[in-house]
Amino acid sequence: MSAQKICLVTGGAGFLGSHLCAKLLQLGHIVIALDNFYTGREKNIAVLRQNKNFSLITHDIINPIQLNHVDWIFNLACPASPPHYQKDPIYTTKISVLGALNMLELARTHNARILQASTSEVYGDPDVHPQPESYRGAVNPIGVRACYDEGKRCAESLFFDYHRMYKTDIKVIRIFNTYGPNMDPDDGRVVSNFIIQALKQELITMYGDGTQTRSFCYVDDLIAGIVTMMNTNHTVTGPLNLGNDTEFNLLQLADMVIKLTGSSSTCAFKQLPSDDPRQRKPDLTLTKATLGWAPQVQLEDGLKKTIVYFHEALALQNLTDKSYEKNISIE
Ligand code: NAD
Ligand code: UDP
């Protein structure tokens, strides 16, 4: 293991942040989660709070913050689900841009290493497929997704300007669709929606005709990639794609979820949201060569674990009626 670090994880109570905090604690580091619970949840970090090396700061990253000391900063704070980031798009832009600026200033003050959770959304609705890091993207700068896409693009540009101007030790990763336990059941992303709808024997909300593609990465693979990236030497700045490069269309995803849950749900076709990318798959050539990392978990295996999580989450939240409990049969 690398020497013990004091790690700040912004967005630590969110889906990815909570897994990252758990992994860093497991590796022996000291972890400070920073979150304002905009989309994060206390229950994601409840078990971590029992660890003496874990602490929480409730703070909004659009405002500057001072800390006594920090070695590593992981900047994950930002709503990631389209319904969440589109709810208050101006705030989303502030989180991405001012949040990045504030965290970069903190890194500069402490001479800390800083990782930015960027996104495949910087490629927009891509006309190059799969997407290598060299592809500059096709983002609609005035569309409903722009608050997120352009906010993340501006954050990347700030990271590289700090690196050029102040030699800040930066790492930029572009995360592709990731799923797994600790996703918020009300998050609105496709994997959580489909699984919950299937478990509840409800109609599966298929936006468009379901032929659009995504490449789904299981959370454990993603976290391993983030930790590997953070442990590279200072010459490795990225951007590097992190995700799974096995591509599925949404009809295939729905079939798999229905099969694995033993559900009788069928698809209800709805209007495709505006600017919804038609296809997405990471080109992992550079990432594999740089990190020696590759995703390991097949979609079917990751979905099984995620279905168990949502089954328990639904039961716990008592969101369901008795028919749910009677009908359920997880494969
Ligand atoms: P999430 O919504 O579950 O977590 C985001 C966390 O950030 C939440 O805990 C939220 O409360 C916190 N947060 C939001 N605004 C904040 C603010 N102003 N101040 C402090 N905390 C704030 O989302 P996630 O899926 O865990 O995504 C984490 C990061 O990874 C995001 O930056 C996202 O853009 C990026 N990412 C995720 C995916 C994915 O598939 N999950 C893909 C690409 C990029
Ligand atoms: N999607 C869908 N039904 C849903 C939620 C999403 O068909 O209930 C579609 C969405 O239109 C997109 C894909 O699934 O084509 C992935 O959506 P998600 O919000 O998970 O992530 P992103 O669009 O950011 O990749």
Give structural notes:
With 331 residues, the chain is α/β, with parallel strands linked by helices. It is built from 11 helices and 13 strands. The strands form 4 sheets. A 7-stranded parallel β-sheet has the order 3-2-1-4-5-6-11, with helices on both faces. It has a two-stranded parallel ribbon with strand order 7-10. Helix 2 links the parallel strand 2 and strand 3 (54-58). Helix 6 (190-199) crosses helix 10. The model has no long low-confidence stretch (mean pLDDT 96). Bound molecules: nicotinamide-adenine-dinucleotide and uridine-5'-diphosphate. Residues 10-11, 13-17, 35-40, 60-62, 76-80, 95, 99, 117, 119, 175, 177-178 line the site of nicotinamide-adenine-dinucleotide.
Explain briefly what this protein structure is:
This protein has helices at 15-26, 42-45, 82-87, 89-110, 146-166, 190-199, 219-230, 250-261, 285-291, 299-317, 322-327; strands at 6-10, 30-35, 54-58, 72-75, 113-119, 169-175, 178-179, 204-207, 213-214, 217-218, 240-242, 248-249, 267-270. With 331 residues, the protein is of the alpha/beta class. The strands form 4 sheets. It has a 7-stranded parallel sheet with strand order 3-2-1-4-5-6-11, sandwiched between helices. It has a two-stranded parallel sheet with strand order 7-10.
The total count of strands amounts to 13
SSE run? EHEHEEHHEHEEHEEEHEEHEHHH
Span between termini: 37 Å
Number of helices, where a helix is a run of at least 4 consecutive DSSP H or I residues: 11
Strand content: 15-25%
Which stretches of 5+ consecutive residues score pLDDT under 50? none
Strand arrangement within the widest β-sheet reads 3-2-1-4-5-6-11
Structural class: alpha/beta
Q: Per the principal axes of the C-alpha atoms, what is the gross shape?
A: globular
Helix content: 25-40%
